[in-house]
Amino acid sequence: MSHIDKEKQKLIARIKRIRGQVDSIERSLTGGDDCADILMLLANVRGGINSLMAEVLEDHIRLHLLTPESKTTNPHELAEDMIELVRAYLK
């Protein structure tokens, strides 16, 4: 259980970092900062979100698709679940 809590804390820290980056974008927009600087901030947020999504997706695969319980599940259902997750990730 502590392993899961440790992973959850890492995800929460990542979210807080992203929130700080979004706040920085808002300050830059209201402060009239240069467009190139704002675009760089936006790219940083996008990278943070993509990294967070990849981590959660990886955890989902490990915790729900590669467990002994998942072996009793229909492989077709597991494949469909994975396809749905990847499609949502790539949108």
From TrEMBL:
One of its GO terms (biological process) is negative regulation of DNA-templated transcription. This is Metal sensitive transcriptional repressor. Gene3D superfamilies: Metal-sensitive repressor, helix protomer. Belongs to the FrmR/RcnR family. The lineage of its organism: Bacteria, Pseudomonadati, Acidobacteriota, Terriglobia, Terriglobales. It comes from the Bacteria. InterPro entries: Metal_Tscrpt_repr, Metal_Tscrpt_repr_sf. It comes from Granulicella mallensis (strain ATCC BAA-1857 / DSM 23137 / MP5ACTX8). Pfam families: Trns_repr_metal (PF02583). GO terms for molecular function: DNA binding; metal ion binding.
